[in-house]
Write a structure and sequence with these properties.
Pathway: Carbohydrate metabolism; tricarboxylic acid cycle. Its main location: membrane. With about 130 residues, the chain is mostly helical. It has a single domain, classed as Fumarate reductase/succinate dehydrogenase, transmembrane subunit (3 helical TM bundles of succinate and fumarate reductases), CATH 1.20.1300. The protein is built from five helices and no strands.
C-alpha cells in the first residue's frame, strides 16, 4: 500500500514540459535520428532508382524518356536528396562500425565529436552530389 502511495506522489511531482520548442536534443541524438531517417529514404529510393534504371535499359526510347525525366529541376532535387541521404547513411554506418570495433571511444565526448564529423562529411558530400546532379 505504501509503495502505491509513493508511486502516485512521484508521478505528481515529476516536471512536465509540453513546450516542444524548448527541448534541445544532443548532437548524438540528432545524428541517430538522421541515420534512421536516411535509412528509410534510402530504402524508398531503391524502388525509384530501380524503376528509372529499368526504364533506361528497356530500349533507346526508354533511355531517352529516362533522360527527359532527369532534366526536370524537381527530379534533380529529389535525386540530390536521395544522394545526400545515401551519403549520410553510409557515413553514419561507418561511424557506427568504427565504434563497434573499438576504434572510437565509447564516451559521450567521443560520440559528440564523431557525430559532428559525420555531419560535416555529409555536408561536403551533399555539395559534391549537388555539383554531380546539376
Amino acid at each position: 500500500m505504501w509503495a502505491l502511495f509513493m508511486i502516485k506522489n512521484a508521478k505528481k511531482q515529476r516536471p512536465v514540459n509540453l513546450d516542444l520548442t524548448t527541448i534541445r536534443f544532443p548532437v548524438t541524438a540528432i545524428a541517430s535520428i538522421l541515420h534512421r531517417v536516411s535509412g528509410v529514404i534510402t530504402f524508398v529510393a531503391i524502388g525509384i532508382l530501380l524503376w528509372l534504371l529499368g526504364l533506361s535499359l528497356s530500349s533507346q526510347e526508354g533511355f531517352q524518356h529516362a533522360a527527359a525525366i532527369m532534366d526536370s529541376f524537381f527530379v534533380k532535387f529529389i535525386m540530390w536528396g536521395i544522394l545526400t541521404a545515401l551519403a549520410y547513411h553510409a557515413v553514419g554506418g561507418i561511424r557506427h562500425m568504427l565504434m563497434d570495433v573499438g576504434y572510437l571511444e565509447e564516451t559521450f565526448a567521443a560520440g559528440q565529436r564523431s557525430a559532428y564529423i559525420a555531419i560535416a562529411i555529409t555536408v561536403v558530400l551533399s555539395i559534391l552530389a549537388g555539383v554531380l546532379v546539376w
